[in-house]
Design a protein that fits this description.
- The structure holds 2 protein chains of 2 kinds.
- By secondary structure, chain A is an all-alpha fold.
- Chain A has 8 helices and no strands.
- In chain A, helix 6 packs antiparallel against helix 7.
- Chain B has a two-stranded antiparallel sheet with strand order 1-2.
- The chains are: A mainly alpha, B mainly alpha.
- At the A-B interface, helix 1, helix 3, helix 6, helix 7 and helix 8 of A face helix 8, helix 9 and helix 10 of B.
């Protein structure tokens, strides 16, 4: 039981690279949040009237710094989502096409939010297809995890995050905000439960997540 | 509105809480010291499980006293419109705000220390020590029995004073502030869901942190697996709690500068780091990756503690600073 940490050679696969990029972007946004906290703390303590005069500018700078990182995260997510439907070459084309459509929508409307929302909407449609194919047991989608319920959970929670991103980017002042938000919350939470605990729900026990990860390494 | 009657009732309730609470606080401190000693001194560890059980029982008794206090407060703390004289509602102060936040966290960690089974023998000293430290912090810093709910009692006291002056701009402004706090903070459904979910996640992450430290020290992969099990248990309520905060924030902080405020920033950072940890863990067995995974797990917990402290240090929305 108490085996020492086993290690296998590091192979830089496409999936591995996407995972590293995802982790790096999460970390980068985390660092930005931390620096933002430090700056606002310092400014509130030392600059009189900063909350009224300086805060809007601070928010604008934070948004400007975060925007390319969020776009990159969305692009990586976009690469992750259709990778379960297309070959590598087709994947690059589809992802590039989605990005292009987002850029065109953003340029035509002169709105980064609409461009992002258009891109996210396309990602959501593809993710819905991925979830449907996974539930149906089709062989197309490829996952890092094993077991249909675990895969479905993974698909649902990523769909939930895409929908939540659409809410943040485009629907905060819309009457659609609450219905879409609750759908996103239910998908994210339900998907996370399935993704973490699918083995407990399965009628016929499937390969547990951790064993699957170990076999991946083997 | 019977202002002096309400003030007297609340004063009496506070006095009774202090009388009952002082021995509870002393007991909690004493048991915390005992649990800490047993966690640190290996020769005393055979009774550690029993001591943790005692700590949980005492914390539960204290929580019962606090529940009584909140019930009496609910009965007394009516909000009355100075214009109409009608009661618009009573303030329902949740059991996990202000001076009671650390207490709830300590209670949840202590319960988890009592219930955990996997690697219990190895992890119990670390988790019990965490529970003891949190309990001591809750008693010495939070002071939920002797100096309870300073923000609420300060605001409600100000409201009562203003109401005593009759119908004027001051009483109307105080009423509006109190009613807004009642509707959008104390009595809202969100306050009964968001904080408990986060404290459950904080408790689970504390156990995960202790397991990660064991993994780093011993290099045994089984500890990493235990750390992951607790981390995923913590990640679920963390994600749910933060998501559920979003529509509430839009409604309650409408017109306020809350996006990118200090506490919100720190919370987002914590979630991002735990998400990064769970993603990085997919490649745990690849050469060198486990060190990054362990570093992320440790960093995430450090940020969790900083996020908690930010509430008291960094001014802005969602802050007592």
């Amino acid at each position: 039981m108490n085996a020492r940490m086993q290690e296998t050679p590091l192979r830089r696969t496409w999936d591995f690279s996407l995972t590293v990029a995802t982790v790096a972007l999460f970390g980068s946004l985390g660092v930005q949040s931390f620096l933002g906290t430090l700056y606002s703390w310092w400014a509130l303590r030392t600059l009189p009237g900063w909350e009224q005069a300086g805060y809007p500018g601070f928010v604008a700078v934070m948004n400007a710094v975060a925007a390319p990182q969020v776009v990159a995260l969305v692009v990586v997510m976009g690469l992750c989502v259709p990778k379960r439907l297309f070959s590598r070459r087709a994947l690059i084309g589809v992802s590039g096409g989605m990005l292009l459509l987002g850029v065109v929508a953003g340029v035509l409307t002169d709105s980064l939010a609409i461009g992002l929302a258009a891109y996210l909407a396309l990602a959501a449609f593809i993710q819905i297809a991925v979830v449907a194919l996974t539930v149906a047991g089709a062989r197309g989608p490829s996952y890092l995890t094993e077991g249909r319920l675990t895969k479905t959970g993974s698909g649902l929670l990523h769909l939930g995050f895409v929908l939540f991103a659409i809410v943040v980017v485009a629907l905060q002042r819309s009457s659609w905000m609450l219905p879409v938000f609750w759908t996103a919350a239910a998908l994210t939470i339900g998907g996370t439960v399935l993704s973490f605990y699918a083995g407990r729900f399965a009628v016929r026990r499937l390969v547990p997540v951790e064993s699957a990860e170990e076999s991946l390494a083997d | 509105m019977d202002v002096s009657g309400t003030a007297n009732t609340i004063g009496d309730v506070l006095d009774t809480l202090a009388v009952i609470g002082r021995p509870v606080q002393a007991g909690l401190l004493a048991v915390s010291v005992i649990v800490a000693l047993m966690s640190i001194v290996p020769a005393l560890r055979r009774w550690l499980g029993l001591a943790v059980g005692g700590l949980v029982l005492l914390l539960l008794a204290g929580e019962g006293v606090l529940a009584w206090f909140h019930w009496r407060l609910y009965e007394a703390a009516a909000v009355v419109s100075p214009e109409t004289g009608q009661v618009t509602g009573h303030v329902t102060v949740p059991l996990w705000v202000e001076s009671e936040k650390l207490y709830v966290w300590a209670f949840i960690v202590a319960v988890m220390a009592l219930l955990m089974r996997r690697h219990r023998e190895e992890l119990l000293p670390g988790v019990a020590l965490t529970a003891a430290a949190l309990t001591a912090g809750a008693v010495l810093w939070g002071r939920p029995f002797t100096e309870p709910l300073p923000q609420f009692l300060g605001q409600y006291g100000g409201y009562l004073q203003a109401m005593a002056t009759g119908l004027n701009q001051g009483s109307f402004a105080a009423y509006q502030g109190m009613e807004a706090s009642r509707q959008f903070y104390y009595n809202t459904w969100y306050m009964w869901v968001h904080p408990p979910l986060l404290f459950v996640s904080y408790g689970a992450f504390a156990v995960s942190f202790v397991a990660t430290l064991h993994m780093v020290r011993t290099r045994f992969s089984a500890f990493e697996s235990t750390a992951y099990r607790w981390a995923r248990l913590g990640y679920l309520p963390l994600t749910a709690g933060m998501l559920l905060g979003f529509p509430w924030a839009i409604l309650a902080w409408s017109g306020e500068s809350w996006w990118w405020s200090g506490k919100v920033n720190m919370s987002i950072m914590m979630w991002l780091l735990y998400t990064a940890y769970l993603h990085a863990r997919l490649y745990l067995r690849r050469r060198g990756i486990w060190r990054w995974v362990a570093a992320l797990a440790i960093l995430s917990f450090v940020v969790l503690v900083l996020t908690y402290l930010a509430t008291y240090i960094v001014p802005g929305a969602h802050s007592y600073a």
